[in-house]
Amino acid sequence: MLSILTLNIQATSRRRADALLAWLTSRPEQILLLTETSSGDGTAHLLDCFRRAGCQVHHPPLPGDRGTAMISRVPLTVRPDITAALSIPGRAVAATIHTDPPVTVLGVYVPSSDRAPAKVERKRAFVTTLVTAVGGLTVSERAHLVLGGDYNVIPRDHQPPYPGVWLPFEYELFDALTAAGLTDAHQHLAPTVQPHSWFGRSGNGYRFDYLHVGTALRNRLHGGSYLQEPREQRLTDHAAVSIDLDLATPTLGTRPMPSTVAPATLF
Description:
- 29% of the residues lie in helices and 26% in strands.
- It starts with a strand and ends in a 22-residue tail after the last strand.
- The longest helix has 19 residues, at 117-135.
- The chain is globular.
- It has 267 residues and is of the alpha+beta class.
């Protein structure tokens, strides 16, 4: 079984990093997609602990901005060729996982924006180049693709709908993913349940975080959920999202986490 989890870590501070690390290492997932990483001490500490435990960690450099990291306890091959053409390559990370059959995982942190023209265009450019990158994969690779992360958009059928807040290109991201053969894993598993992964100051809930799977993986979905503990425990301001895929999965030789996070063990 291959399990994948995505979580926005809210550019974790060093103060929050150990508690966040303890929660992440208590989880069973083999692939972690962390969004809103930063170049600060908290992110560095978190990722270094996983490296010292023998995990493969890929975190594209993005000085002065927020990015994405992938942590794996299963063998993988990093795929910078997939992210190179994105308008902000450091906001994405991709790798092919050595499962049977191989699966390509693409983690993204889509820029947020208000209606300021520069921010809108930055977000539009990223979404456009993301759709192009997915469309540029071979048919087989798209069929075996997992796309996940913080998309910073909601679908048209979101409840509540928040009319007038979102621009057409933001909704159209979901149309493009569907056209590329990708399925919203949660919607496939629990079509009548509307989760929220982030809440505004007024208490309004939004589903910003997602995992999508290609056509060859849809029938291999064996479960998934939105996990509210990181948000409820104030480790970050987002919920995590996880899925389980019925795939044969080799393992890495991982070691226990450093004693600073003791009682947790690696995954």
